[in-house]
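Sorry to interrupt, but I need a hand with the structure work. Go ahead and set the record down below:
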Amino acid sequence: MPQFRSNENPMFRSKFSEDIFKHKYAHHGCETWDALSSVLVDDVCKEYLSKDDRDALKRMITDLKFIPGGRYLYYAGRENKFFNNCYLLKAEEDTREDWADISWKSESCLMTGGGIGIDYSVYREEGRILNGTGGLSSGPIPKMQMVNEIGRRVMQGGSRRSAIYASLNWKHADVDKFLTSKNWYDMPVGETGFSVGQVKEQDFNFNAPLDMTNVSVNYDTEWLLNYWKTGDVGDTFKQNVRQALSTAEPGFSFNFFDKENETLRNACTEVTSADDSDVCNLGSVNMGRIESLSEFAEVVELGTKFLLCGTLRAKLPYDKVYETREKNRRLGLGLMGMHEWLIKGGQKYEVTEGLHKWLSVYKGVSDHVSSSFADTLGCSRPVANRAIAPTGSIGILAGTSTGVEPIFAVAYKRRYLKGGNRWHYQYVVDSAAQEIIDLYGIDPKNIESALDLAEDYQRRMKFQADVQDYVDMSISSTINLPKWGSKLNNEDTVEEFTNTLASYAHRLRGFTVYPDGCRGGQPLSSVPYSEAVEKLGEEFEEGLETHDVCDITGHGGSCGV
């Protein structure tokens, strides 16, 4: 296979990586990855780090060993420094003033380029009498829809569409309505004979309920203790599982014991908080590019310092966010390239003894450095240091496996909208997989992928739980599953999946699945390695009547990510 080579950005492993950089992050003064790395480190750290540390950080970012979150990359060298990826908002009381306040805060945050997450559990259920007016409450779901529409109309930072999260407690009176709030294929479009889901397959921009919003149910200590005492997960949890296995949503937010009040989540769910107007401050260490444990410790140290400097430099949308940041100074140092690291070591997708050792360094160094460096800077110590984001765009930049996820597929078609209404696609060979094939002569058929693990969800759950032991916030991880109604995912498998997930719940902070084909217009489809190699680097336009949707069967299939 011909290898990609870039004169401008020699560290990129694929044209796909370079295209993402040029499309999303390159701008005046930051036309190359090396230039952006230098500008960004000076933007964030010049006042706080020595020249030697800044030079080391620049090398690490240039070499793709540490990559700050996407908002850091986007705002490098720009006048505004909105470096935070997301904002966590709390509905604090069910009043007209709070409803209006949530709308104002949502719009203010979205305009900076950051996503938002909101817990609506305090809002009373639909139909409750309003003593002040004599009217009836509309319940939390219409408010979610209002925020969803704000997200639809606001182009984040003038550059991207909104990312929104909404959650509701499992005991809320409207939870049954919430569970089915995104069942688009059950919602007719007038008298057309089509459902919302069917129309959205044809027109990605067609308005659908909560289509800008990821939804999740919160489970607290009361739920867990009842499960441990009785063995019964309850009807809500059972229905939640069935919904997830068939439609992917709602997800599961687990908040137990000392974390019970941390019901606020960012759009991708990895950052948690109990405090209104908290922020995501993200950056990821790329294990796939790091050769030794000592080097890993150094990258973790400087990545932690970088993010702490970010808490002193980032501009924020309104005063309360500054107050909460000063109180919590939350860092979100994450990991990516974990599966690449395992494959290079000849290991399966498991938390091995060697990985435990690296994760221990990740935890120990970040905790020590965040406290000691905060003392040096004379600022408050961070209340939490580690959250593992999905690293979609920056994972593509690094050409590695995203977050803690396994490689989706060795080769796939990536489908995307161009010009707002036309589907295009490219053939992609996973760059981490290709490097392993080139370096070690491994047969592509022998590289384990997310599609292989779709048939072994218990191993995916265990892996996530084992990594969670080293993370003080949460992990954004989506487990791929076969299509609903298939042999491995149907009504008969719901009970077993329910029991397995419940048994791991106390070790997880969140959980999400993606059954194949559950959403129209899904972006990725597995293809044979030889086909992708043959068509690599070409761009194709797809007829609007065709869709890259196929079932997971054997080692093939598709999935949205």
